Amino acid sequence: MSISPKINTNKLTADDLIYGYMNGIFPMADTDGTLYWYSPDPRAIIPIDTYKPPKSLKPILNKKLFEIRINANFEAVMRNCAAPRKGDADTWISDEIVEAYCDLNKMGLAHSVEAYIDDSLVGGLYGVCIGAVFFGESMFYKVPESSKVAFHYLMEILKMQGFELLDTQFINDNVRRYGAIEIPRADYVKALKKALEKRCVFTEINLKELLNG
């Protein structure tokens, strides 16, 4: 893995994020709030075309236990993702990161997929969309299976719009269950450059089509 300091010494901006993602790097905050830019080798991705929901998820999808929304409360999703996890009080999502990604959301380049029960946010995920690439960042759940359902609809939207690359950065047990694989960084950079040449739109219209289909 390669690590580099912040692109500049000023506050992290949406433009910094755009530059970083287009060049294969992404920021994470240290425990003291210091930002570093990462470019893992190998890089974890989730193939889009071959994704299929696990059999255990199909009954939950059929029951429609969760209401799915897009970008209804982007900051709340980030704040929940930043909350301490069981057995780990640290977080790489600092307030500075939250603010910059919220600006990116307002620009239409960062998106959240959210799961609700009785109008209460119970799970979701967020990421960045540039060209035909979706850069997955983080997910959370308060109710079991909620984040899995959110991820399922993310994948269906990416398929509908013809996205070519879903970047999930690091490999771990969580992303493996969604079909993540590792590829050399050089291969990732080639795939990234190719996918950035294509324009895709991440839109709530696709979600409505999926839910009503």
Structural write-up:
The chain is α+β, with helices and mostly antiparallel strands. It has eight helices and ten strands. The protein has helices spanning 14-22, 58-63, 74-82, 95-106, 146-161, 173-176, 185-196, 204-212, and strands spanning 2-5, 26-29, 35-39, 43-45, 67-70, 110-117, 120-130, 133-141, 165-169, 181-183. A seven-stranded mixed beta sheet has the order 5-6-7-8-9-4-10, sandwiched between helices. Helix 1 (14-22) packs across helix 4 and helix 3 packs antiparallel against helix 4. The longest helix is centred in the C-terminal third of the chain and has 16 residues, at 146-161. Its EC number is 2.3.2.6.
Keywords:
213 residues, alpha+beta, 8 helices, 26% strand
Largest sheet: 7 strands, mixed
Backbone shape: globular
Average of per-residue pLDDT values: 91
Helices, by number, come to: 8
Q: Approximately what portion of the residues adopt beta-strand conformation?
A: 25-35%
Q: What is the tally of beta strands?
A: 10
Q: Give the proportion of residues in helices.
A: 25-40%
Query: Which class do the helix and strand fractions yield?
Result: alpha+beta
Strand order of the largest sheet: 5-6-7-8-9-4-10
What gap, in angstroms, lies between the N and C termini? 43 Å
| Parts with pLDDT < 50 across at least 5 consecutive residues | none
Q: Could you give the order of the helices and strands? A: EHEEEHEHHEEEHEHEHH
Oligomeric state of this protein: single chain
- The value of Rg in angstroms is 16 Å
GO molecular function: leucyl-tRNA--protein transferase activity
Keywords: Acyltransferase, Cytoplasm, Transferase
Function: Functions in the N-end rule pathway of protein degradation where it conjugates Leu, Phe and, less efficiently, Met from aminoacyl-tRNAs to the N-termini of proteins containing an N-terminal arginine or lysine.
Enzyme class: transferase
